[in-house]
Specification:
Strand 2 and strand 3 form a beta hairpin. The chain is of the alpha+beta class and about 170 residues long. A four-stranded mixed β-sheet has the order 3-2-1-4, with helices on one face. Helices cover about 50% and strands about 15% of the residues.
Amino acid sequence: MSDNKWLRNSFVWVIIMVAMLVLFFTFAVQRPKDTDIPLSEAATAVASGQVTKAVAQEEGDSVKLFFGNPKDNVVKVTQKEPRVSFIETLGKFGVPQEKIKALDYSVEKASSLGNYLGILGFLLPTLVLVGAFVFMMRQAQGTNNQALSFGKSRARLFTGNKPSITFQDVAGVD
């Protein structure tokens, strides 16, 4: 019985830890919104030579822009148009071709962590609801068995006028 209680308690702690991890990755890992800049401001920064490197995501429309020295680590993010490359967008904004060619531009694969968090965000509430349902059903089953066992009483009828027979009485009959 203690193993079952230990298993239930550890299951609850695992659910709590997973929920805390999901909350951490949801709120703490997200980039701050003050690093987002409009596309027009990004084009102006590229045209003025402030941006040294641009990294676009393979899937999605975000582009990371690195300003100045890489040691300064000033990174801002802009959103490009869907299905249009960032280089084409810069050309449409009138950025000179020599500035575009001087830009260190690359495309990187998107992190698969977002996919896992999306799946976990769906599965975790489902597992919690299923676990709560199973827990309630187990509790109700125990209560139900106790509630319906009133007809199986082990009480015996006792009448005061019925003589009781003991082994001494039986032995004395000989």
